[in-house]
Amino acid sequence: MWTIARKELADQFSSTRFLLLFSLILMVALITSYMAATHIREALEGVAKPSHVFLLMFTTPGKFISLTQFIAFFGPLLGIIMGFDAINRERQLRTLSKVLSQPVFRDDVINGKFLAGIITIGIVVAAMILLVTGMGMLAVGVEPGPEEIGRLLIYLLITAAYVAFWLGLAILFSIIFRSLATSALAAGAVWVLFSFFIGFASDLVANAVAPVDNPRDPEQIVAHERASETASLVSPVVLYSEATGVVLDPFRRSRSGVVMMGMLEQLSLERFQSPLPLDQSILVAWPYLTLLVGTTLAVFWLAYWVFMRQEVRAV
Q1: What mean pLDDT is predicted for residues 168-187?
Q2: DSSP classification of residue 229
């Protein structure tokens, strides 16, 4: 397995398409972060710098979107590019049967490919976060504290698990479909569905499950919004956005976007405006983290199960 993983790592880092895509994602991420740093520096001129200002580098929108939003929408392309031809390319080149004719177990092939993809994703995401961190220190003039470094490490793990989901999905389609173009289009279609149309689908589900008959009834509105939020959790894009939003925003205390509060609850909330510690933020984001990691493992298990039961012909 480690031999196959090393071979896949060499192929990934020497691939022209991977280098072009990584350069494009890195360039856009740096530009977005620079715009966000410029905006933060202008906003903080002449005023006392608040706590956790360094995390604003990742959550503040630049010209259009923030860095976390950019990775949520376009990070899956990295996993799809690395995995859409992982197996069917071997079939077309007729190298899969030759590899399996050696003393190599079949599961070592798919495990090595997935392991190499995770290592590549971790290196890419870590490099991106370090570059943005260095640029933020130069542009904003603040250094991250120990808790902010811890939040960035958790953000690194969440991003790696998120991109690994799309890697596993692309590997699954490369096993199911013989054509490279078909597997790439199938993975791209799922990415478009989960990224751009999940909002419409969740609204349709909410309208069917919890319709709003009286727009002035707050209970119906809250029930409708909660049904829409629950339906949208089938998308890994939503899971990633919610998890990173909680981890990188210490002042976020609830998973739901709509909460009914009375007068006493509002007064109590105003009394406790200090940021949450890291462990409490992890507890708030834990359901999203569990679902994200669980879907990643489920997709890879499905790809593993299908690959282990396919026939490999020496043609």
Answers
A1: 90
A2: H
